[in-house]
Amino acid sequence: MEKINDYLKSNMNILFVGFNPSILSGKVGHHYANPNNRFWRILFEAGITPRKYAPTEDFKLLELNYGLTNIVSRPTVGAADITKKEYQEGRAELLEKILYYRPKIVCYVGKGVYQEFSGKRKVEWGLQKTSIVDGTLDFVAPSSSGLVRMKKGEIVSIYKKLMVILDRILCK
What confidence category does residue 33 fall into, taking pLDDT thresholds of 50, 70 and 90? Predict the structure, then answer.
């Protein structure tokens, strides 16, 4: 399987953090490559990207000042296959990335991702009251997996709030 590259740069506007790559993403070496995953469509419909990107264009998010990473780098069939040790190591690595690259907003693509990173069990959608890293806002969005039972329109409306928050930050 291919290594899925992180796409990171200093002071990016939004860092999107997923659980881990799918098996297909591991095979092709690109984020959110499974055709059942709605990540790229959600970003476009929420106004985060100017068009629907293909998974092979994942690196182009850096041009928009967005980044991509995962809490665990090993591709698996599902998040249930991630070990406690992998989460422990992944939490430390993700914290280092956030501290080093200082994104304005960290968008956790799924409540479970944020729960694993923060250790918090009670989590609401959207902007969190407190952030894990000072100077960076934490935003929890629904997973883009096709397995999520929420309607896509509901998911898109949550992601749209990211742009409202980002606009507020950039206008200061």
Answer: very high
**In 74-167, where do the E strands start and end?**
105-109, 126-127, 137-141
Residue 172 CB coordination number (10 Å): 4
Residue 13: CB atoms within 10 Å: 17
Round to whole Å and give the CA distance between 119 and 67.
23
Question: Cα(107)–Cα(59) distance, rounded to whole angstroms?
Answer: 17
Residue partners of 34: CB distance under 8 A and separation at least 6: 22, 24, 25, 146
3-state SS assignment for residue 70 = strand
Domains of the chain in start order, with CATH, are: 14-170 (3.40.470.10)
Backbone angles phi, psi at 119, to 5 degrees: 80, 0
Residue 62, SS3?
A: helix
> Token pair of 29, please?
């070496």
* Nearest partner of 111 among 80, 144, 142, judged by Cα: 142
Residue 58 has pLDDT above 70, yes or no: yes
